[in-house]
Amino acid sequence: MKVSLIRATLSALLLIPLLIQAKTEPFGQGRQLVSADNYHVLTPRERIAPENKILNQRLEQLLPQLMAESDLDMWLIINREYAEDPVYFTLVPQPTFAARRTTMLLFSRKADGSVEKLSVNRYPLGEPYTSAWAGGDLEQQWQALADEITKRKPKQIGINISEHWPVADGLTSGLHQKLLQVLPSEYQNRLVPAENLVVRWLEQRTQAEIDLYPQIVSLARAVIAEGFSNKVITPGVTHTDDVAWYLRERFEQLDLPVWFMPYVNLQRPGLHCESDSPYCGISGTIERGDVLHTDVGICYLKLCTDTQEMAYVLKNGETDAPDGLKAALATGNHWQDLLTTEFKTGRSGNQILTATHKAADKHNINQSTYTHAIGFVGHAPGPTIGMWDNQGDTPVQGDWPLHANTAYAIEGNIKQQVPEWQDQWVQIKLEQSAYFDGKQVIYLAGRQTQWHLVR
């Protein structure tokens, strides 16, 4: 018997348990979507009311809790037009397009635990902010801010400066220096980084947001389903870039902004992919028998998604993906379960990553984990659970603990040999938006457990 035949036979025998798993194990939360036409999308005008309602709830109910947790008496957001603090747009009512001229927000924690919300701004923001000053020149504005600070006598004043968290580093050097100039010396020493508050504000999801999130993620997944269909793909004609641009333009048609350009790639027999390859896939014209992958992210009602899914282009005469590919997708779902089982409140991202590696090694899964928080931005602050180019500990961000009621892109990949491809490795790249309720991880719009099939 030839060596290649022996090798193929052994690989097929080793694959039998995975094939049984692929056919019999009902991986939880699987869901197939068909088209974004099945979902209602609010017009930009219709989005304002729910966005502002959620903002007011967050400011009234969540912010006091987080300021107390961060031991801050006051929090300052100071920014200028075209150089906005990253957190600014999560704090102001819609429609707001910029920090007009210089905009200052002041949050002051009162004795009863509630938070006073002030704007010190030439153009008043309106509810839910009380205008402490309006009109006058820039020097008067800065003096008004200093007066509002000193009259409340805060002991700890949070400002957005941070070495490690970009979203918490929105106070520019020039504005920081001006703040120091206008404050009495005794208050200058009370300025402290607000990074813990900023991260918690951005990562924490309210019940109202969790109620909306499934619709948002469903739209992202449904457009992927359209892209991975014969509505878009003609085998032998359509290029992977054509599919990527369909996704981009379809989201634009729905008034759903993307936060990065969608991309699509393919794998097929004969293309290089090894067990240790960090990335497998190329761009090109789509042919029958190809495996396709896409990565898309949209933002809607202030919440962002991040999704990666896989498709198979059927050969003539085929009605389903080859068993080896179905087994590989099942392994990807198994990896997801191993990862999400390790989500425990208080664990750091690094601890979750280490536990996932141990579990995957026990099950002989060749995987790479790089999961991150999502929310107001796609790559949101929170516990980093691996990086695609670093499967060891991530300092600072990886040390951040897991909190209940936070959302994540469950992201990573597995690689597995496919008998139908002469034991060539295939990379299954998966990413699904989910939230952690404190006990379990729940996919916001289900997850992919079956191949998209292009006929």
Automatic annotation (TrEMBL):
Residues 219-415 form the Peptidase M24 domain. It holds the Pfam family Peptidase_M24. Keywords: Aminopeptidase, Hydrolase, Protease, Signal. GO terms for molecular function: aminopeptidase activity. It comes from the Bacteria. Gene3D superfamilies: Creatinase/methionine aminopeptidase superfamily. Residues 1-22 form the signal peptide. This is Xaa-Pro aminopeptidase. It comes from Lacimicrobium alkaliphilum.
